[in-house]
Amino acid sequence: MVSFTRSVAYPWALTGVFGAVHLVVTIIPYSLSIGGGGVISFGLVSGAIIGFLLGPFFGTIAVLIGSTAGGFVNPSIALFGLLTPLAPATGAFVAGSFRVRGSRIKSVAPVLFVYILALCFFILGPIGIYAPGYLWLHIVAVILVLLFMVPGVGPQLSDALHIESDSKHSHSFFAILLVSFIAVMADHLVGSTIAAYVFSAGMDPEALALIFMGVAFIYPWERLLASIITAVVLFITSISLAKTYFDLPTLPGIHSAPLEIPPEELEELSG
Description:
Elements: E1 2-5, H1 10-26, E2 29-31, E3 39-41, H2 43-54, H3 58-73, H4 86-97, H5 104-123, H6 136-147, H7 154-160, H8 172-200, H9 205-214, H10 219-242, E4 258-261, H11 263-270
Helix pairs in contact: 1-2, 1-3, 2-3, 2-4, 2-8, 2-10, 3-4, 4-5, 4-8, 5-6, 5-8, 6-8, 7-8, 8-10
């Protein structure tokens, strides 16, 4: 057995690469026919994907870098100025948190904290009292987060997220779909909360609340589609990575573990 130790620069190099990927993806805009003529980037999908692959630390940093740079390159997607990257970065953090191995509290507690904090900011904000119904799908997402804490169910879902080369994938797609949906909805919740504060500065809160409620049963279709696309990409990518020695970081420090490759496989890789 031959062992290799990852360089400390390895996860940071991946962070830069994925940050560049997110930048490129972010500056490709597409329009949603949900009213308002808004422009949303494909970063809606790539943020959660990068967070899931790199973890809550490196993934969040990569998305922050890519989103911030994307806002300068294509200002039309920076609807909230320098606050814009917070939404996709939140999605990346949430998706990555579920990948943290160990107790379920370590992975689920940060996600619940993010949701509770964002919900409080929205409800206590300028339109919270006028548009509580807008949050209905975000409440569903919180309930799905709690599934990961249910004895007997949570451990199976968490284990299904970690696809190994010799493992069965019967429950993996469902678990990845749940995480994708939760991450995409966290992105949306933070983005909506920022929008409520920013737009209320120049608009009557009650009128703004009517706009929010007008899309309360329209935005779910766009979010569900984004969740499915995210899950499909992550499922295929996870299966492919499980067949290689290309290890991705989850948290700082894990890259220092030695990578062991049998001599016969090393010969195949080199020859």
